[in-house]
Amino acid sequence: MARYGKAASRSVETEMRHKMTGKHKIKSRKQAIAIGLSKARRKGAKVPAKPSSRKKR
Known about the structure:
- The chain is about 55% helix and about 0% strand.
- By secondary structure, the chain is an all-alpha fold.
- The termini are far apart.
């Protein structure tokens, strides 16, 4: 079973294309992936939930 839906991968591909063409001022590939996944989450695509931060003791 796939973790990410097709819509999520399409939005990540779009952000990668924007990074290459210079449409966004993105420094790294990881930033492009994060932006694509967050946009997919907003659209309601199948994307795992963001990992929540825990307090360290």
